[in-house]
Amino acid sequence: MQGAARPNPKEFIVKTDLRDIRFEFDSYQIRSEDAQVLDQNADLMKSNPGWLVLIEGHADQRGTPDYNLALSERRARASMNYLVSRGVRANRISVLSYGKERPMCKEASEDCWSQNRRAHFAVKAK
């Protein structure tokens, strides 16, 4: 939410029907395969108008903390903007940036890093 108070992530739960998307290294561009996932997420959100959605931006372990926080913010916002372009109202979406602070995988490998470069979705019912 633009200008709103920082959302409390503890108020949101992971909905398995909303799927995460991944990003290339050093990028916040939505890839075509992830656009299809976001299209499905948008359809789910439109058919569940009571959902408020939190998009968490994440980065892999490479890069400085400040750089990764900024990059993961851009990833979350790119995801939000895509959903809004598909008809989801922006006031239903909040974004948070975690940078590299919450990795899914902690190994030093490209496969592991690719899992950490993501936008993660959680829901709070109104």
Your description of this structure?
The chain has a single domain (9-125), classed as 60s Ribosomal Protein L30, Chain: A. It is 35% helix and 20% strand. The chain is globular and about 40 Å long. The longest helix is centred in the middle third of the chain and has 21 residues, at 65-85. The protein is an alpha+beta fold and 126 residues long. The mean pLDDT is 93. The protein has a 4-stranded mixed β-sheet with strand order 1-4-2-3.
Apparent shape: globular
| The CATH class | Alpha Beta
Strand order in the sheet with the most strands: 1-4-2-3
Residues in β-strands, percent: 15-25%
Q: The CATH topology, please?
A: 60s Ribosomal Protein L30, Chain: A
Q: In oligomeric terms, what are we looking at?
A: single chain
Number of helices: 3
Regions with little confidence, pLDDT below 50 for 5+ residues: none
Structural class: alpha+beta
CATH superfamily label:
OmpA-like domain
